[in-house]
Amino acid sequence: MAGTYDVQTYLLDRANIHDTIFRMTYAFDTRTFSVLVDSVYTPTVHIDYSSIMDRPAEDISSTSWAQNVDSLLAKHDSTQHSIADMLIELPQPGTAARPDTCSVVAYGNAWIYKRDAEGQLRTMVRRNGGRYEFELKRLDELEAKGQNPWRISLQRVLLTFQDVGP
User: Fold this and answer.
1) How far is CA 58 from the centre of its chain?
2) Angstrom distances, CA of residue 69 to CA of 93, 101, 163
3) Which CATH architecture best describes the domain 7-164?
4) Taking a C-beta distance cutoff of 8 angstroms, is the pair 130, 92 a contact?
5) 84 vs 81, 141, 152, CA distance in Å?
6) How does pLDDT run across 121-163, given as a tens digit for each residue?
7) On the CB side of 150, how many CA atoms lie within 13 Å of its CA?
8) How many CB atoms lie within 10 A of CB 104?
9) pTM above threshold 0.90
10) Contact partners, residue 87, CB within 8 Å, separation at least 6
11) Which of 128, 130, 116, 126 is nearest to 164 (CA)?
């Protein structure tokens, strides 16, 4: 899209960026990992969970990352991830051309549970929270197909608290 960034496109970009990030947590919790590859991440993504896991930051294919998330979460009976207070950095309409990338900072929490002896989801394995830092890219080929064009190319988690269950 040539020319100055207009209000309608700015608002649509903000909504699509929100949807991409919320879709990530939804895919984690519903274990629909194909969504991570198809609708959330760029084909290669920079992942940095070093503050929360014994794993260095890395550039990894979205398929491999989705498989890693699947194996991590498969150990648990229930998870709930939430993202809140997103600060999306986009230029104001009328001040610049439409961007191809943007940064997002948000707070995130995760609750991870196993079933107790009675089969109820009452045994907390872990609860943690912190800050997410994202970089997203706008992919023109997706937009040309009428799809949400924003995909996460960088995801960093900065842990601020963690409770570990029994």
Assistant:
1) 16
2) 37, 25, 20
3) Roll (3.10)
4) no
5) 10, 29, 17
6) 888 888 999 999 999 999 999 999 999 999 999 999 999 999 9
7) 26
8) 23
9) yes
10) 104, 105, 106
11) 126
